[in-house]
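Aim 2 progress. For DeoR family transcriptional regulator, the working sequence is reproduced below.
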Amino acid sequence: MIAALDRRRIIHLSEAAQLLGVSEMTVRRDVAQNPEQFAFLGGHILAASHAERDVPYELSTAADSHAAAKREACAHAASKIRPDETIFVDCGTTLVHLVDLIPDNYQITAICYAMNVAQLLTKKPGITTIMLGGVYHPASASFSGTRDFDILDSVGINVAFLSAAGADAKRGATCEHFHEAEVKQKAISLSRENYLVIDSSKIGKIKRAFFADLKVFDAIITEHGETKLDSD
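Predicted structure tokens for this construct:
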């Protein structure tokens, strides 16, 4: 469990039980008996040291009730990652699963602007990570700063994986935070391929920060698979 948390930072209770070959009740008991090593938050397990010092973002991740659907969506999206290419990985609680699914033998360059995403990318042996900096926003564990757009302009992006808090047929893709929208829009404009990776609970929802019409994406990918969009 310690080794798994070192790689993943946070693991759902059911996934931990499957990993260890024991019941969920056994995992709960062992976590409770070892508070100096583990913490249990909202159905997820994380290292006690992380629970003590991490930003509120980790708590929102732990409380997420759609983790399984997000991971399944990312399993479909992972087929869009190809060796020797450059990808953009958006912030949020979904695409951390995509990073986890990148094969260890892939040599790729990954651009990100979220702390949790960067932490996972740097654990992959074949990945060159480019982290966009600026002002840190604890609510989404992400950074913003227009100066880093110069970095994006200088990099050729093959595939951009975007997350969203809402995807509505009429109003498009939206997110919770306005600073995210600006980064998303820039990445979309520079990438050859763009994929919106969301769980189906986001379909039909509208959040306050608009960042793209759905037609700009090559496809929307959910736990149910890929939906290609009409470009007209």
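The chain is about 35% helix and 25% strand. This observation will guide construct design in the next reporting period.
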